[in-house]
């Protein structure tokens, strides 16, 4: 693409894109650890995820600042402008995904190391986590490849996560009379909700892919006006 | 060197005062910029030549009234040549010729029996370097067009046109007390606004501007851009600019000209709403040019 003019600027923009999207790999690591923490009620590992979120936040701040500098100094237009605008959105989504992992990890100690875990519900949440990791990977690839079709496919995958979240809710309703078990189920519902939001953020990234490609921003799905 | 610093500070203070004055004058309602419908320019299959050299090939575009249309493109792409064909200035170059049709609200400006001088009165031009008549007073500079067009006017009427034009060019408040002083004594930005006042004194339909701000500092540039935004209420405006940000800021429609290689004629690649050209142009060449990847 660069033809001898503004090569440094083009390289810097490409590096910033790579750097921003690496944030999604960081989120995937955080989410994997979060799922492991849920599976084994591993409070220490949960604490690692919480501490490591500073790295995701740092990435957000660093790339965000560099993008603002590019805007101020290089007057980007057309595709470059759309890319920078979308990266600012994507960064925010990544930062939120990291926070949601932290939210899940914060509720793990509440249920304790000997939590009265319901294996079926744990399995549902782990399945949600697995699907959400796929969504994150797919959103990254769709962005890198500017593949609108792949981006739109995120909606279909997100529906699977939404359905699993609903199943969690029904399981929690039918978890029985035991007070400890009910409390555990409530905290796990918060975890499921957080994971479901991470999947939504991946869809938001997909919407940004469509914006970069077409120049039009349209929500793939509108929560207030479902199709 | 403290003296130099003092001089520089003085110049800066004067500049700031000038800017403040320009702002005050632009804040006032100016009757010369009340809205009126200007004329549409249609170019159909326009080909322009310098002798045997084919400079511009097959340009077809509509220039909407009361809009600012920016012509952008790298040097030698034919944008200025095309601009100069719109008021028949191209033919002033020896050996230059025009094929195709250019109409002003349907009237062919190259029709037989059409007086080029009349065309140039309807389609005014502002140039890159401010070019006031150096020995003429500010007043006479503005009135020059009226005199050249041999319109006999009584002094009070002429005074009114001069004031209206200077107000229209956001210059009145800065020069009203020194109308008899030479136009060349004004700053570069003021001189350019004086030239705009001179151009609008004859009430043209269209204003052509050939890089009107390239010789001006950033503050004077913004003052002229503000003026352009206001002038479109009364005129159809076409601006040639090398400053991409100026095209983005000051125009409604942008036309991108390009030439495939040196020696080939310039062509119109794409014309669209300015917002579209700078956010989602449809041609790759436009994208590359506005993004600064070539040119």
Account of the protein in words:
The complex is a heterodimer of chains A (227) and B (295). Chain A is mostly helical and 227 residues long. Chain A has one domain (7-214): Up-down Bundle (Methane Monooxygenase Hydroxylase, Chain G, domain 1), CATH 1.20.58.220. Chain A is 83% helix and 0% strand. Chain A is built from 6 helices and no strands. Chain A starts with 6 loop residues before the first helix and ends in a 13-residue tail after the last helix. The mean pLDDT of chain A is 93. The radius of gyration of chain B is 20 Å and the shape is globular. Chain B has 295 residues and is of the alpha/beta class. In chain B, the strands form 2 sheets. In chain B, strands 6-7-8-3-9-10 form a 6-stranded mixed sheet, sandwiched between helices. Chain B starts with a helix and ends in a 5-residue tail after the last helix. Chain B has a single domain (24-290), classed as 3-Layer(aba) Sandwich (Rossmann fold). The model of chain B is unreliable at 22-30 (pLDDT under 50). Chain B has helices spanning 2-27, 79-85, 116-122, 138-148, 155-168, 172-175, 188-201, 218-231, 244-250, 274-279, 284-290; strands spanning 41-50, 53-63, 68-72, 96-104, 107-108, 123-126, 206-210, 236-240, 253-259, 266-273. Chains A and B meet through helix 3 of A and helix 9, helix 10 and helix 11 of B.
């Amino acid at each position: 693409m660069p033809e001898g003019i503004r090569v440094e600027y083009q390289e810097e923009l490409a590096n910033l894109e790579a750097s921003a999207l690496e944030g999604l790999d960081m989120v995937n690591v955080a989410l994997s650890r979060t799922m492991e923490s849920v599976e084994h009620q591993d409070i220490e590992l949960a604490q690692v995820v919480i501490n490591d979120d500073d790295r995701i936040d740092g990435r957000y701040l660093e790339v965000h600042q560099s993008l603002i500098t590019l805007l101020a100094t290089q007057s980007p237009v057309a595709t470059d402008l759309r890319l920078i605008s979308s990266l600012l959105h994507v960064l925010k989504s990544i930062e939120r995904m990291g926070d949601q992992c932290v939210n899940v990890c914060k509720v793990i100690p509440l249920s304790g190391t000997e939590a009265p875990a319901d294996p079926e519900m744990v399995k549902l949440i782990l399945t949600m986590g697995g699907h959400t990791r796929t969504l994150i990977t797919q959103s990254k690839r769709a962005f890198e490849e500017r593949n609108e079709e792949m981006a739109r496919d995120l909606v279909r995958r997100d529906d699977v996560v939404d359905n699993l979240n609903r199943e969690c809710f029904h399981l929690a309703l039918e978890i029985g009379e035991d007070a400890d078990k009910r409390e555990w189920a409530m905290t796990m519902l918060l975890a499921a909700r957080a994971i479901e939001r991470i999947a939504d953020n991946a869809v938001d990234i997909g919407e940004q892919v469509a914006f970069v490609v077409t120049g039009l921003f349209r929500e793939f799905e509108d929560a207030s006006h479902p199709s | 060197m403290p003296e130099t610093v003092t001089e520089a500070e003085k110049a800066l203070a004067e500049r700031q005062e000038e800017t403040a004055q320009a702002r005050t004058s632009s804040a006032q309602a100016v009757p010369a910029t009340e809205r009126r419908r200007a004329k549409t320019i249609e170019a159909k299959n326009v080909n322009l030549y310098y002798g045997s050299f084919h400079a511009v090939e097959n340009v077809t575009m509509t220039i909407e009234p009361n809009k600012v249309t920016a012509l952008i493109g790298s040097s030698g792409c034919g944008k200025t040549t095309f601009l100069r064909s719109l008021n028949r200035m191209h033919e002033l170059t020896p050996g230059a010729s025009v094929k195709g049709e250019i109409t002003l609200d349907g009237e062919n400006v190259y029709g037989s029996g059409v007086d080029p001088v009349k065309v140039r009165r309807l389609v005014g031009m502002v140039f890159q370097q401010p070019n006031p008549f150096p020995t003429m007073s500010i007043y006479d500079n503005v009135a020059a067009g009226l005199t050249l067009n041999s319109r006999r006017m009584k002094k009070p009427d002429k005074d009114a046109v001069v004031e209206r034009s200077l107000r229209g060019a956001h210059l009145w408040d800065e020069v009203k007390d020194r109308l008899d002083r030479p136009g060349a004594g004004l700053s570069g930005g003021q001189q350019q606004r004086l030239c705009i006042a001179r151009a609008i004194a004859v009430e043209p339909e269209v204003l052509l501007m050939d890089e009107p701000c390239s010789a001006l500092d950033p503050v004077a540039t913004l003052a002229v851009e503000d003026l352009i935004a206001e002038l479109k209420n009364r005129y159809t405006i076409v601006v040639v600019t090398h400053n991409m940000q100026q095209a983005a800021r000051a125009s409604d429609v942008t036309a991108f000209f390009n030439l495939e290689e040196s020696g080939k004629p310039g062509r119109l690649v794409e014309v669209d709403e300015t917002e579209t050209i700078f956010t989602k142009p449809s041609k790759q060449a436009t994208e590359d040019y506005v993004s600064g990847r070539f040119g």
